[in-house]
Amino acid sequence: MPLPDTMFCAQQIHIPPELPDILKQFTKAAIRTQPADVLQWSAGYFSALSRGDPLPVKDRIEMPMATQKTDTGLTQGLLKVLHKQCSHKEYVELADLEQKWKNLCLPVEKFRALLQLDPCENKIEEIKFLALGCSMLGGSLNTAMKHLCEILTADPEGGPARIPFETFSYVYRYLSGLDWDIPASDTESYLSSLKDSVDSRKNGMIGLSDFLHSKEENLENLEKKT
Question: Keywords of this protein's UniProt record, alphabetized (predicted)?
């Protein structure tokens, strides 16, 4: 014989006082992030929340990028989320990084393909992983550096996207070193020309207009010589 349904009155049901706000923040985060797999992303969200870790949440809704080399699913917003979750460590374990990648509903095979650009065993320098991600987003080295500046900058969106020149030059050397078609001498010459401009301002920062404009000038000078 089936048990009768138990009836409860409102006074008998205890709702934790923090639950409404948790659900509200979760809903807003899901709308901003637009995860491809809500259940997978939710597991990562509440796991991070319970540990007090940075949440896998975008700053804002973003449109899918049409300039990626391949259909990786990776966007600048998702890469920024990964950076926020890992930037407190100089080196990150690949297993932890892969789980965070999965929690953002990104294909694992693309994660492994990304690491093949600079194979490592158990861990990777966080800034180098960010650089590899930027290279996956960008069709050129300069485009990758543009993504890097926009992710790392403390400037408001739409601003000059300035970052320390030391960080810029470190990542530029790293990515250019992975491209056998770029001589090391060209890299050093280019960075030296940028450093002169940065040093003249005495703030040690470089923004988008500095290196994008500089690149255009270099191309113009090359055309004049030829």
Answer: Cell projection, Cilium, Flagellum
Q: Are residues 149 and 214 in the same domain?
A: yes
> Which two three-digit tokens encode residue 31?
């709308």
Q: Position 199: which residue type?
A: D
Task: Note whether 117 and 157 are same-domain residues.
Answer: no
**Pair 145, 134: CB distance under 8 Å:** yes
H-run or E-run covering 123: strand 123-125
In which domain, by residue range, is 183 found?
141-225
d(CA 93, CA 98): 9
Handedness of CA 113, 58, 211, 125 (dihedral sign): negative
Q: Please say which residue of 137, 155, 185 terminates a domain.
A: 137
- 125 within a domain of the structure (yes/no): yes
Question: How much is the pLDDT for 203?
Answer: 85
N residues, the chain: 226
Nearest one of 209, 127, 207 to 161, comparing CA atoms: 207
Strands 163-164 and 205-206, sheet pairing: antiparallel
Average pLDDT for runs of 10 along the chain of length 226? 61 84 96 94 96 94 56 86 96 96 94 94 96 91 95 93 96 95 93 88 87 58 43
Which tokens sit at 99? 């789980």
